[in-house]
Design brief:
- Belongs to the ABC transporter superfamily.
- GO terms for molecular function: ATP binding; ATP hydrolysis activity.
- Keywords: ATP-binding, Nodulation, Nucleotide-binding, Transport.
- The chain has 2 domains: 171 residues, P-loop containing nucleotide triphosphate hydrolases (Rossmann fold, 3-Layer(aba) Sandwich); 65 residues, no CATH class.
- Helices cover 37% and strands 23% of the residues.
- Strand 4 and strand 5 form a beta hairpin.
- Helix 3 crosses helix 4.
Length: 263
């Protein structure tokens, strides 16, 4: 089979000085095959955001290796950054710029040809055309979430890293965004890593799930695998069992199913 699009080996990140370090991510490994949607789940402080930041090259790991689209992110991330993107409603765009100005600036940063045409295209696709001329600081939380996703899709990324992509959206709009992401993946073959606290969203979108607690991947598998292993009816109950370190029926951590699928 082809090499994985995302490959993480023994990744560790510590903060602080040598005398009293804080380990945010502790020796994690996983691989994501092309075209897969993988959920990265865990409670606050589990290490999800730190992991995503290292995948993007925003944080340097203390140790370990990251390969994205076949390239070593610690040495050659400039080779693949234009083929990736990231969205989070918790990372603000410049408030004084309008939506159109923000998207145009990012379009130029990404080196997109025909930026004006692409901005209009993605604005229509994500239903943000009606507030293109509005300053981002005047948008509602849900509108900001939608604009953040539009920014992330400007360059038609092959790898899309999403942090709570439907946060602050009403149920109808959130469902529409999930459908759009499914269609985008089916149309382009993009690989998506999704951090979310919405377990219904994860069950719908993700073929594979990585469960983190305390900076460690403590379990992994398909949503159906996890439901069966923990003897639960919903992924939310599985999430609570793992977050509170309660194992149903003495279940043991699964084998590296994500890695197995990519090897």
């Amino acid at each position: 089979m082809s090499q994985p699009v995302i490959k993480v080996d023994h990744l560790t990140k510590r903060f602080g000085d040598a005398a009293s370090p804080v380990t945010a991510v502790n020796d994690i490994s996983f691989a994501v095959p092309a075209g897969t949607v993988v959920g990265l789940l865990g409670g606050n402080g589990a290490g999800k955001t730190t992991t995503i930041s290292m995948l993007l090259g925003l944080l340097l790991p203390t140790s370990g290796a990251i390969r994205m689209l076949g390239e070593d992110m610690l040495r050659h991330r400039h080779r693949v950054l234009t083929r990736m993107n990231f969205s989070s409603p918790y990372v603000d765009l410049p408030h004084r710029l309008t939506v159109a100005e923000n998207l145009t600036v990012y379009g130029h940063l990404y080196g997109i040809p025909g930026v004006r045409r692409r901005v209009a295209e993605i604005a229509e696709a994500l239903d943000v055309t009606r507030f293109l001329k509005k300053p981002v600081g005047q948008l509602s939380a849900g509108q900001k979430t939608r604009v953040a996703l539009a920014k992330a899709l400007l360059n038609k990324p092959e790898v899309l890293l999403l942090d709570e992509p439907t946060a602050s959206l009403d149920p109808d709009t959130a469902d529409w965004i999930r459908t759009y992401l499914e269609t985008y993946r089916d149309r382009t073959g993009a690989t998506i890593l999704l951090a979310s606290h919405n377990m219904l969203e994860v069950e719908r979108l993700c073929g594979l799930v990585l469960m983190m607690r305390g900076g460690v991947i403590v379990d992994r598998g398909t949503p159906a695998d996890l439901l069966e292993r923990y003897g639960r009816d919903t992924l939310e109950d599985v999430f609570l069992d793992i977050a509170r370190d309660r194992r149903s029926g003495g279940a043991e951590p699964a084998a590296d199913r994500v890695g197995d699928a990519a090897e």
